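Practice problem. Given the sequence and the SMILES for zinc ion, write out the predicted structure.
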Amino acid sequence: MERYWNPELETKPWPEVVAWQCQRVARMVTDLRDRSAFYRRKLTGAGAAPREADAERWLAQLPFTHKDELRQAQDAPLPGLPLGAQQAVELRRVVRFVSSSGTTGRPVYYGLTGADVEAWADGVANAFFTAGIREDDVVAHLVSLPMVAGGMAYALGFERIGAAVAWLGGLPPERMLESMAALRTSAVLATTSFVRYLTEHGERLTGHPVRGLGVRKVLGGGEPGLGEEEIRTRVAAGWGTDHVRDTMGLGDVLASMWAECDDVSGMHFNGQAHVLVELIDPVSQEPLPWREGMTGEAVYTTLDRQATPVLRFRSADHLVVTAISCRCGRTSPKVRCLGRTDDMLIYKGMNVFPTAIRDVALDAAGEELEPQLRIWKESTSQVRFDHPIPVEVEARPAVAAERYPALARRIEDAVRSRLQVRVAVTVVAPGTIPRAAYKTALVQVRPPVQGATGPG
Ligand SMILES: [Zn+2]
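Answer key:
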């Protein structure tokens, strides 16, 4: 059986991959000055193309692109340029529009030419191939929004592999499950929240547990979660398969770029042919080495994008490098996603991601907890906490209510010692925390309490 989608790029030593990519970025930068007014302004003063040995240093002096800049550019449409000044081809060459997910403000729109569509299909296919999808699979594609990265682009990637796609996104969940049974789907792809929703509610919706569907491969993506052992174990048990894989991409860059291989120890980067990825310190903005345990923000540069290229795009996704070598032979780094900059909370100067709190809680008391957690804040804009961060976790049915306080203290101690952050944990009864069907918001705004005074 084929092991790699792109054997040359997936197994070439990583520094050689980066050197090859830098040469392509250099060509793009030269070309971009002519093609896009947005990048012409941005690239004023950027140095000339690099010698091979200096390529990474040359790359580091190029300007970043922020999503807000693209949004603003799009707010000032120009004749023939509905995508704003970053649009780098004539409109007649654009064959499709795609959109960022809009989870962080108004969506930004991007364009694809025929060649861009081909490149996306190849890149997405590479990621899903790494995650174990093959041409004999029948894939239930459960994402409903065609225009976001996880819509049309995922379908294209599966088709490129040669798998048969059953695009069921948008149907009511019980109809999805009925269609999956009828088509004998062998694989399923959905947001991690929706995978978990079906795992828990499938039986209630159809009268049959989802493990009876015979699905052998479960792919989740779009948000952190499957990297957590407790959540992965539940999903595996629910569907009756050990093949549970995490994937990740970005509508602004390439719909799917990261996916777990058979080693299931973090997501490999699979976009080598089309995208260069850097890891940076989000504060100093300096590049960081791909080294095990390193954390930083992912920054992406497209190599061959025609309609809307991006140059050093700040993704706001925070990654932790889990390994830089792998038994599977792939040379790209492996990561887990910790969350987005917008998710980050600050307790007395310490940064913490909600996913990290969930991780520690499940690690400390997974036997007694449902993998559900909710963090309360006082207002949408609250990021800083001067008092312990209020956290709710859900007990399993077997845990007696009189044990809740001791359980809460155990989790508080674990979070404090592991993350140097104080949380105030309340243990609640099973089923109290609502399950999300699209993406799980771990942080919610607390509804105002009658008679309470505001935070001033
Ligand atoms: Zn691997």
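Check your answer against the key. The first strand starts at residue 94 and ends at 99.
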